[in-house]
Amino acid sequence: MDNKTDTYKTVAKPSEEILFKEKKSKFYGYAFPVDNEDEVKIIIEDLKKKHSSANHVCYAWQMGIEQLSYRANDDGEPNNSAGMPIYGQIQSFEVTNTLVAVARIFGGTKLGVGGLISAYKMAAKLALENSNIVEKIVQNQYKIRFEYAQMDVVMRVIKQKNLEIISQKMEMNCELIIAVRKRDSEQIKDIFVGIYGVDIT
């Protein structure tokens, strides 16, 4: 990702459960926002408890913004018949930091690999269509240190550039932590570097 594309899409919150039926098999689809693999493990364990009669809980996730990582898991279904079709939908919706899981309850009729691929793909697609997908901005955080006398100058820049203050300590020696949109960060850093008596890291 270059500095111009400093936004990414993700699901805002866990989706509602969706149900897709194929030849009496039931496929329950879900989408979740995730930031790490530990969260994925907990969610999958919860889904396995919730659908204790499910034969398989298959899933895929993608995380990261500049460096993407992903995993697809077939959970005992034939190779690449579940996890990869789910992952394909994550790619087609262009979301990251997102987990899509599908719990399958077997209905007695075998679907064959082709049938499985299309059923898992459809359940994943419905789960993502049913999600609130939001665009987020990638931000860098900076710590600014300055003496109380520089307060007006610093605050003027923050106001003009519409910067977000994450935290502040206002004493004789002041300290601010600000969030800056990634594509603007070099420019903003240069402005503060150019102000006498202001230290930015």
Automatic annotation (TrEMBL):
It comes from the Bacteria. Residues 23-128 form the Impact N-terminal domain. Pfam families: Impact_N. Belongs to the IMPACT family. This is YigZ family protein.
